[in-house]
């Protein structure tokens, strides 16, 4: 029996987690409606998480409990940061770096869990764990792509030359092509999306500067 059926409390929070991925798309909608920068990482992350979460829920995937707990924990820290920003508090830059680091750690652990699940199926048999080979392939591809994108974001936001000067390039479309002449204060950004913190603080116009 799947953990969702065996433990009603876990099943309830899993159900809420899956449903929460739909309103999260509202972030993207608001960005588009306000004609603000929409980067590839933002919409790719939201759409793929939504599709994978709903797909996994139909299978009652065993490894999902790990992914859900990690996501809840990281998002609790991240949205607390956004709440402080919205209340005009200014958390130190180290907090934003910590959030991005937590997200990168989440991706590494996600890949490790999928590798472990694959090995378990190979040794104990395909019916030994409630997870399909297809789910493992989709999940590890998703987590690995997230790791690459968040690592690139971390470098550009905190380690690059512009980041050390307090500025970094922003992207103004859904593609991965950065504008050549605009930079944004990196202290306001976190790893989930360099647009969300702007929305929280309502400071998009005041932060964009010419190079």
Automatic annotation (TrEMBL):
<keyword id="KW-0276">Fatty acid metabolism</keyword>
<keyword id="KW-0443">Lipid metabolism</keyword>
<keyword id="KW-0472">Membrane</keyword>
<keyword id="KW-0444">Lipid biosynthesis</keyword>
<dbReference type="InterPro" id="IPR030457">
    <property type="entry name" value="ELO_CS"/>
</dbReference>
<keyword id="KW-0275">Fatty acid biosynthesis</keyword>
<keyword id="KW-0812">Transmembrane</keyword>
<dbReference type="GO" id="GO:0019367">
    <property type="term" value="P:fatty acid elongation, saturated fatty acid"/>
</dbReference>
<feature type="transmembrane region" description="Helical">
    <location>
        <begin position="63"/>
        <end position="84"/>
    </location>
</feature>
<dbReference type="GO" id="GO:0009922">
    <property type="term" value="F:fatty acid elongase activity"/>
</dbReference>
<comment type="similarity">
    <text>Belongs to the ELO family.</text>
</comment>
<dbReference type="GO" id="GO:0030148">
    <property type="term" value="P:sphingolipid biosynthetic process"/>
</dbReference>
<dbReference type="GO" id="GO:0005789">
    <property type="term" value="C:endoplasmic reticulum membrane"/>
</dbReference>
<keyword id="KW-1133">Transmembrane helix</keyword>
<dbReference type="GO" id="GO:0042761">
    <property type="term" value="P:very long-chain fatty acid biosynthetic process"/>
</dbReference>
<keyword id="KW-0808">Transferase</keyword>
<feature type="transmembrane region" description="Helical">
    <location>
        <begin position="96"/>
        <end position="116"/>
    </location>
</feature>
<dbReference type="GO" id="GO:0034626">
    <property type="term" value="P:fatty acid elongation, polyunsaturated fatty acid"/>
</dbReference>
<dbReference type="InterPro" id="IPR002076">
    <property type="entry name" value="ELO_fam"/>
</dbReference>
<protein>
    <recommendedName>
        <fullName>Elongation of very long chain fatty acids protein</fullName>
        <ecNumber>2.3.1.199</ecNumber>
    </recommendedName>
</protein>
<dbReference type="Pfam" id="PF01151">
    <property type="entry name" value="ELO"/>
</dbReference>
<feature type="transmembrane region" description="Helical">
    <location>
        <begin position="40"/>
        <end position="57"/>
    </location>
</feature>
<feature type="transmembrane region" description="Helical">
    <location>
        <begin position="136"/>
        <end position="155"/>
    </location>
</feature>
<dbReference type="GO" id="GO:0034625">
    <property type="term" value="P:fatty acid elongation, monounsaturated fatty acid"/>
</dbReference>
């Amino acid at each position: 029996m799947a953990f969702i059926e065996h433990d009603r409390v876990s099943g309830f929070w899993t159900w809420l987690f899956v449903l929460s991925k739909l309103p999260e798309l509202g972030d993207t909608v608001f960005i588009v409606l306000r004609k603000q920068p929409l980067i590839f990482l933002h919409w790719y992350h939201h759409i793929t998480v939504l599709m994978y979460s709903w797909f996994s829920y139909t299978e009652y995937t065993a490894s999902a409990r790990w992914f859900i707990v990690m996501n809840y924990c990281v998002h609790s820290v991240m949205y607390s940061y956004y709440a402080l920003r919205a209340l005009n508090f200014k958390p130190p830059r180290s907090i934003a770096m910590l959030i991005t680091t937590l997200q990168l750690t989440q991706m590494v652990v996600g890949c490790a869990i999928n590798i472990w699940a694959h090995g378990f199926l190979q040794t104990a048999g395909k019916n030994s764990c409630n997870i399909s080979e297809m789910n493992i392939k989709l999940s590890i591809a998703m987590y690995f792509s997230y790791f690459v994108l968040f690592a690139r974001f971390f470098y550009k936001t905190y380690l690059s030359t512009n980041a050390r000067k307090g500025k970094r390039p922003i992207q103004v479309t859904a593609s991965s092509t950065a504008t050549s002449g605009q930079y944004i204060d990196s202290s306001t950004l976190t790893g989930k999306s360099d647009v969300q913190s702007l929305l929280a603080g309502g400071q998009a116009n005041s932060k964009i500067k010419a190079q």
